[in-house]
Amino acid sequence: MFTFRTKLTLLTLLPLLVLIAGVTFFAIHQSARLSGVQSDILKDGLLEAKQAELKNYMELAYTAIREIYEDTSLPREVAQGLVADAFHRMEYGSDGYFFVYDYDGLNIVHPRLENLVGQDLWSFRDEDGKLLIQRLVERAREGGGFTEYRWDKPSGGESVPKLGYSIGLDDWGWMVGTGLYLDDIELVVSQMEYHMVENARRTILLMAFVTVSCLLVIAVIGLAVNLSEARVANRRLVKMAQKTFSFLEKERRRISRELHDGINQLLVSARFKLERIDDAWGGGTMSMPHPRWRRPTAFWKQVSTISDAWPTICALACSTTWGWSRPWKASVRTWWSASPCGFISSRASTAGSVSLCWPRPCIALPRRACTTLRSMPARPVRSG
Question: Which residue has the higher pLDDT, 61 or 264?
C-alpha cells in the first residue's frame, strides 16, 4: 500500500509525466510532418531548378540550329542532316545530351545509344510501364513540356528517374528532347531527411535529458524538503518531549508537595486530637476502665474518629512498652513499616517529648500523652 506522501507525490508527478509525454509525442509527430513538408518543398524547388535548367539547355540548342532550320534556301535533307549532326555533337555535363524522334516514333539522333537510331520506338515503355516516346511527342506537339520517366544512366549503368523536356520542329515533324537525371535530387532530399531525423532525434534526446534533469531536481528538492521537515518535526518532538517531561516533573513535585502538606495536616490533626485526649485525661474528665484486661474504650472511641491518623496511633501504641501480646504488636509494626508512608517510631527524649519519625521529623507528641499511653492496662495473653 502506498503512503499518503507517496500518493501525493504520484498525483504531483503523473500529470507532469503525462504532459511531458504528450509534448514529446507532439514534437515527434510535428517533426515528422515538418520533415515531410520540407522534403516536398525541397524536392519541388530542386525540380523547378531542373526544369529551368532544361529550358535553358533547350533554348541554347535551338538557338544553335535555328538559322539552319529557318533557312529555306537549303534543301530539307541537307538542313536536316546538318541539324541532326549538330544535336549529335551537343553535350553538357557527364550525362547531358539531346535526342531526336519524328512524330511517328522513329529515332533520328541518340548520342549515347546509337543502336537505337532508325528504330521505331513508338510503343516503347519505360520500367514503370508508361509509353515514353508517345508522351514526349505529345508534349512537343503542345509547344513544349516536361515528362518524368525512368531511363538508364550512362555513367551509372542503372535505371534512375529522369526529367525530360521536349519541343517540336513542326515544319519537319521532329521532336527534339533532352533530360536531366533526378537521382541527385533524391540524394539531396534523402540527405536533408536524414539531417532532419538526426535533428529530431537530438531534440528528443535533449527533451528527455531536460525531463530527467527536472525529475532529478524535483526529487532532490523533495528529498531535501522531506529531510528538512523531518528535522523540524524531530526538533519539535524533542521540544514537546522536554516540555512534557518538565510538565510531568512539575506535576510530580506539586503532587508531592500536596501529599506532603496533606500528610502534615493529618499529623497535625492527629497531634491536636491526642492533645485533647491528653488534656481530657489529665483533667480527670475521663476515667480508666477496669479490670486491667479491658481496653480504654473511651480513648479508642475518641481516637477512632481520626480515620486518617489511625495507622499513626496504632504504630505509636505498638512502639510503647505496653503489656500487649507481641504477635499483634509485631504484625502492626510489620504492616506500618511496609506501608508507603514510611515508618513511625516514638521514644522519650531529653526534652520530654515523643517524636513521630517520617522521612524527616514532622510533629512531636507531649510526654504526658506518651505516659498515658504507657500506663494503659494491657490485655493478658490467653493461651490455648
Answer: 61
